[in-house]
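re: ur question from earlier - yeah i can do the single chain one, its not a big deal. heres the input i used so u can compare w yours
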Amino acid sequence: MGRFPKALWRAPSGEIAEVTVWCSNDYLAMGQHPLVLDAARGALERFGTGSGGTRNILGTTNSHVNLEQDLARFHRKEAALLFNSGYVANLGALSVLGSLLPRCVIFSDEGNHNSMIEGIRRSGADRYIFRHNDVRHLEQMLASADRDAPKIIAFESVYSMDGDIAPIAEICDLAERYQALTYLDEVHAVGLYGPHGAGVAEQLGLMDRISVIQGTLGKAFAAVGGYIAGSAALVDAVRSASAGFIFSTSLPPSAIAAAQAAINHLSASAAERDTLWARVDALKTGLADAGIPTLRTPAHLVPVMVRDASRCRRICDDLLRQHAIYVQPINYPTVAKGAERLRLTVTPAHSEDDIRTLVGALKSVW
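and the output i got, formated as tokens:
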């Protein structure tokens, strides 16, 4: 803390060395921001370490209620609901919505996260899987479904493995034409996109057309937890029926305070986002000039394509041992066989020297 993205690596031999991290989800380095640290410390001093119970028994505090109200305003929705992780939020919300709506049909992008897939599966609803970001295929499926059945289109804004972005406006057009709810996962976008950091839907002026926005507190907001935001009735239905919400001890007050401080700061400050995007551009340009194969994407995530599992592992080992650079391989089943890669995440805390060192190291081991 205070030297991020530097970290201490303890080798199998017991030797400790400083390394530079290139795969953190603390996208804006808010985990060491003074306002966030002060808020967490203050909550620890005031409330102690734990929440003391589930939300329905003892674990609902002023902090939880205030953060839910802030998240609702953040996404311009009537209500929001906290979960212990983004995974549990997707699992809880989609399983409840699909099961409570009679004869519900869910249309899911084939690139959706495992948490969405599991939530849809557990709902028991009929489901259609449309080709990734393919609105024509989605429309064919919508047209073939029961016209009178309730429908949900579930998709992400930023897909973290390929760094591509969903055609949100076109999906909203289809949802309105076929009277479907839209469920948008913004976990890799909140904090990073839009004038206030509310995500890609905010950046495109589309938040009002999204029925449910799901986000995380554990990436750009540098805390822990997940949430959904939507209409009061929909949020209350999920609150009343989601096992993941009902039976889990609630988030500790220190995590709530940290997340709230990060959200409040990033809602008003664009400095972190501006620095991030400058670093992203520098990294992408450096890798291209060095001839390192990457997926050309509009997102902040930079996939370096290796396309071989053993080589992917060797590259990561060589970067760590020879160049003090820490990044993890992304192999099957997270990506398809033959699509193995490194997923690089640059932050405002990475310097231009860090970027040059990474590019040179990659070129050396390639």
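The radius of gyration is 21 Å. not sure if urs matches, ping me
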